[in-house]
Design a protein that fits this description.
mainly alpha, Arc Repressor Mutant, subunit A, Penicillinase repressor fold, 2 domains, three-stranded antiparallel sheet, 61% helix
Length: 123
């Protein structure tokens, strides 16, 4: 991404529906894709879509109704957010992040073993 874009948790939920679909969706499809956990009114979904359009995170295409798709890939957004998080809280050090996770006991022994195996295979 060229410029820093921040989305709210609610906006992230809309993006997740679109990324999962892998194709443009209309507002009704997005609302239906939210599932039972988020029974937002249609106007709420439209407001979130408008915010994402204004931020340049979504683009729209007029067919019989408007269809929306993300302008950024999920992986790209997560990569940028992760970098910002590490920069902000761990002075840019991934090692400090890993140490904090281990020290906070946020990782189980199994997860630590999986990470060790991952690093051994990929580094």
């Amino acid at each position: 991404m060229d410029k820093k874009i921040t989305v709210s948790d609610a906006e992230w939920t809309v993006l997740e529906v679109l990324w999962s679909a892998g194709k443009p969706l209309n507002a009704t499809d997005i609302r239906n894709g939210l599932g039972e956990s988020r029974r937002w009114e249609r106007t709420t979904v439209l407001t979130l879509i408008q915010r994402l359009l204004k931020k340049g995170v979504l683009r729209q295409e007029k067919r019989e109704v408007y269809y929306y798709e993300p302008c950024v890939k999920r992986e790209e957004y997560i990569k940028d957010e992760t970098k910002d998080f590490v920069d902000k809280f761990f002075r840019g050090s991934s090692r400090n992040l890993a140490a904090a996770l281990v020290n906070s006991e946020a990782l189980s022994k199994k997860e630590l073993e999986e990470l060790r195996d991952y690093f051994n295979q990929n580094c």
